[in-house]
Amino acid sequence: MLLYFAAIILSSLAGGLVSATLHPKLSKLEMAGLGFLLAFGAQAWVLQILHAAGVPPGGGVQLTFSVAAAAGAIVFFEWRSRRKTVYGRRAFAITRGVFRALPPPRVALLVTIVAVLAAGATCWPVLGWDAQGIWVGKAEGLIIANSLRGLEVGEHLHYPIGLPILMAGALDLGGEPAVKLIGPLFAGSLAAVVAGALARQGSAWIGTLVAVAVLVVPFALSYTFIAYADAPMAAAYVASSIYLVEYVRRGNRGALWISAALIGVTSLVRLEAPALFAVNLAVLILFARSERLRSAAIYLGAFVLAWVPWQIISRLVLGIEGGFANLALAPFSDFVTGEFDLNRVGVISEYFLNRVVFWEWWSLTFPLTAAGLILVLVWERRVGAALTALIAGNLLVLLHEYYSSVYYDVDIFGDKLGYFLESGFDRMTLHWAPLGIFGAGLAIQALLSGGTRQAEGLPLRST
Amino acid sequence: MAVALHPRRLIAGALVLLVVVHVGMSLGTSVRNRYGPAGSLGFPPRPLALSSELKRLGYMRDPFVFIRAIEAGTSEDSFIAVPKIYEGGFVEIVGRYYLYPRRLMTGDIGEAMESGASHIIARIGGELQGARPILTVSGEYVLYELPGR
User: Fold this and answer.
1) ipTM passes above 0.90
2) What is the pTM (predicted TM-score) of this model?
3) Closest approach of chain A CAs to the CA of B108, in angstroms?
4) Rounded to 5 degrees, what are φ and ψ at B135?
């Protein structure tokens, strides 16, 4: 287990240093969260290629990657610092600072929550079929077969393998408890990003409070516990969207690079990544202040670079067929042939409305999100519109998925659409509900900053 | 010292209150999902008590192996009584989904006989009169074929 922690810390350090280069204004908290997310993406991207080339999966290669990434990042930044570049000096100072400084109370609070999550995660049985049959099943297959052929143990062979690769290394280095810690690590990373990104807008404590609210989005905690891919996907996607909103708001290139890198990370986790990427790309093109084509090209390039290797490996190396590609086009072909089922859209929409607005388990997610979005729209129309479009786009992707789900070729008793709605909607809220709560955080910071510090001529606080 | 209550501060305060109440209300529901409440296997977690090899690979595949074993030992028209060995939802969701069109129910031998079940899964060591053991499921359980079915 110690080796597993070493691998996580070293690779996250490398990721944090890279994020410091991309975005010089990041807080340390954000760097810690982004470090883990970017390190996961880089590791999954590199290792899938190495495994396809014949390098066996497992803890050894993961640890080697982490050591190499950390050493490479530190040597690179040391070289940069000798050349007196701003980023290099800052990144190296931050590396020293991270190890020296005691965390402030709000950071300690988040760390404590993640530690409690981690303890809870090890108490959860891994029961869900997705965990058993897809993610953990494939990870175990990778270890047992010692090659990518081990993926055949699992179901849905065409799914991206970033998570099974990470889980295989965790299984090898730390056993089953290590696998169960992956979810809390992703959740903690997202909390760090939310807290840090909001802290740069004003009160650091408000950022922490909103981060806690994001962590307790209904079902979020439970899905970090049970080795599903939804929590990791949500962490990468929501973090990507947060920096996309920052780019829309301020136009800083660093936020765009980080958002682009993270949307690339999503392509290594779940199949929905291209659809969610399309939503974010549309928001970028519609709402960016300037350089829309150039920004879109960066975004597209990062996604394609991350997405393509698995498409090649799965088809050309492993001979896996495309899976659900035909389902993606189902609504359009229905429309062309005049068989579009408007009634089905109505059933899905009614289900969404009932679950989003009236669900007893939903707590105050809806009023909080609605109030936050309205206030952000009033305060800064472009940012509010971008956030609203991101959430609406996510709901449209869900609508599309559920419309097509009835064509999924599987024997299911009873109502197929009802089954898919019941079995998936709660997980899919993790992709967009945190964005609404982040919007509420932005609104609070704007109201407080505008009412106090800005009105008094004080600079906005930066941590 | 007087504090000026600017409308923006009031709205921000109301939103902060909303966030705090939301966190409080969500704590209970956020650690539940359709597989039941967290930590129901107790602490320290069960896997830590297993051998290193089982800890590494065995425990998490248990329901997966369980389902595959039932599938192998029954036919599509089987009606199987399954004990509640996993948290709620195994039979209702995972089992029913992947063992379809087999029918499943939860219950003991009496309920199984009464309902007309063709098979029952019971813990090793128990005696089921007249039932024919077919195979061992997941190490601790045996799949039996019930008489006259």
Assistant:
1) no
2) 0.81
3) 22
4) -160, 160
